[in-house]
Amino acid sequence: QVWQVESGEELVPAGASLRLSCAASDATFSGYNMAWFRQAAGKEREFVASIERTSGRTYYAEYVKGRFTISRDNAKKTVYLQMNSLKPEDTAVYYCAADAWPYRSVPGRTAREYGSWGQGTQVTVSS
Question: Beta partners for 67?
Fold first, then answer.
């Protein structure tokens, strides 16, 4: 997958909302589960959310559940992450990712299960 992101960095105050997008150039986009991961400075990349390739079922890390929403538009070949009630601890580089294999039934929760990554968007949430 080849990805295009809307912006490379965002600076927002605590409590703000932000939507991230990744658009794919691959015509087979709809055949892949998608996910968002994030990586804070000095820390390992961690799972944020995922969405199934066709059903639209979603999965979330506990620390973002109720605040973040992942969605996809297969016609536009785009995956979104809507982030609400942002906290300083949400500060990280956010990456969209596509499953390493097409047509898998359930998206994974580990970075090793994803084979195509966006360039990342730095999201900084001030106190």
Answer: none
Tokens 């499953």 label which residue?
99
- Nearest residue to 72 via CA among 39, 99, 46: 99
pLDDT of residue 66 exceeding 90, the answer is yes
**Alpha carbon distance 66, 5 (integer Å):** 24
Total Cβ atoms within 10 A of residue 6:
13
CA distances from 58 to 9, 65, 114 (A): 25, 11, 16
Cα 102 from Cα 82, distance rounded (Å): 24
Q: Residue 5, exposed/middle/buried by CB under 10 A (0-12, 13-18, 19+)? A: middle
Could you identify the residue written with the tokens 């080849």?
A: 2
Of 18, 34, 33, the C-alpha closest to 95 is 34
Cβ-contact 34, 79 below 8 angstroms = yes
pLDDT of residue 6: 63
Mean model confidence pLDDT for the chain: 93
